[in-house]
């Protein structure tokens, strides 16, 4: 059995829309592979992977093109074969043919499953929307389509939960037979219209988990101190953690991170300050119930 003092560390290396012309996020297969290596060397055992268009001038836009995604995954797996790849799947709207095709073609060990809908909002101080309000729609029928494909291909779902009701919904999905096995939930905290990045919420969220659930915090948004304090609280309460340039650009000391490895190093330092250790690849697979390496 894996020791209870092990913490699974995920690195979200690029995000979905961050402009690579303004920020040092990886886009090309070589860049994604190198970012994966940096994260792994620093102590992460899961890489959360979004995929960007490889067409000239389109590096800020997501892609589900099978060749582009396949080239990126092949480069990542060749560079760090021990790393667990967690494929992003989030899309707005009913057409999920792109992510489903990628799940079927590449069968990653894990994949994100956005577990409920959210009005994705941000307002400026002058009362003007930072972007046109978006409904990130994840109705039950959409969630089920993802879970059906994940189950068929032995992919562990990572349920991303932006609010407390979404956390509670995962147990209902399990009761309805939409998935089997111990659930893995991510508390997404810091989105302006979702759960705030507050450590005092974690005991409440933990109490709402389904039985035998694994959980982690995804801390994002402004407020460097709040993000890193939230990670510390999560580790103290027995959760797993995630960082990376998708989630934050800033280290605990306020300096801007130059790469994903620096962010993972900072998180691993906190893990060890608390008296725990980052899980290795085999330990992470045992903890999460991953039955085979692909």
Describe this structure in words.
This protein is of the alpha/beta class and about 290 residues long. It has one domain: TIM Barrel (Alpha-Beta Barrel), CATH 3.20.20. It is about 35% helix and about 15% strand. It contains 9 helices and 12 strands. It has an 8-stranded parallel beta barrel with strand order 2-3-4-5-8-9-10-11, surrounded by 6 helices. It has a two-stranded parallel sheet with strand order 1-12. The protein starts with 5 loop residues before the first strand and ends in a 6-residue tail after the last helix. The mean pLDDT is about 95.
Give the CATH architecture.
Alpha-Beta Barrel
Task: Give the overall form.
Answer: globular
Strand order of the largest sheet: 2-3-4-5-8-9-10-11
Oligomeric category = single chain
**Protein structure class:** alpha/beta
Number of domains: 1
Number of helices: 9
Helix content bin: 25-40%
Provide mean pLDDT, rounded: 95
According to CATH, the fold-level topology is TIM Barrel
Largest sheet: 8 strands, parallel, barrel
Low-pLDDT windows of residues: none
Order of helices and strands: EEHEHEHEEEHEHEHEHEHEH
Write down the CATH class: Alpha Beta
- What fraction of residues sit in β-strands? 15-25%
Indicate the radius of gyration in whole angstroms: 18 Å
Distance between the termini: 22 Å
- Annotated CATH homologous superfamily: Aldolase class I
């Amino acid at each position: 059995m894996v020791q209870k003092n092990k913490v699974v560390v995920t690195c979200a290396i690029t995000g979905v829309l961050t402009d690579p012309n303004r920020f040092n996020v990886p886009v090309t297969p070589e860049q994604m592979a190198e970012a994966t290596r940096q994260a792994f060397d620093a102590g992460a055992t899961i890489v959360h992977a979004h995929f960007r268009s490889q067409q000239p001038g389109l590096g800020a836009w997501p892609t589900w093109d099978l060749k582009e995604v396949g080239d990126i995954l092949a480069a990542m797996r060749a560079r760090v074969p021990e790393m667990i790849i967690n494929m992003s799947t989030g899309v707005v709207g009913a057409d999920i043919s792109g992510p489903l095709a990628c799940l079927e073609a590449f069968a990653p060990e894990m994949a994100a499953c956005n577990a409920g809908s959210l009005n994705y909002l941000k307002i400026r101080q002058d009362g003007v929307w930072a972007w046109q309000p978006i409904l990130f729609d994840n109705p039950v029928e959409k969630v089920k389509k993802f879970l059906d494909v994940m189950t068929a291909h032995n992919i562990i779902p990572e349920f991303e939960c932006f609010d407390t009701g979404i956390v509670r919904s995962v147990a209902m999905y399990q009761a309805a037979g939409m998935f089997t096995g111990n659930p893995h939930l991510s508390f997404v905290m810091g989105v302006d219209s979702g759960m705030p990045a507050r450590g005092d919420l974690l005991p409440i969220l933990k109490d709402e988990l389904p039985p035998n659930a694994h959980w982690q915090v995804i801390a994002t948004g402004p407020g460097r101190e709040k993000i890193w304090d939230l990670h510390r609280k999560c580790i103290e309460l027995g959760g797993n953690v995630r960082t990376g340039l998708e989630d934050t650009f800033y280290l605990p000391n306020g300096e801007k991170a130059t790469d994903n490895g620096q962010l993972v190093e900072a998180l691993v330092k906190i893990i060890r300050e608390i008296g725990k250790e980052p899980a290795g690849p085999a330990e992470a697979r045992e903890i999460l119930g991953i039955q085979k390496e692909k």
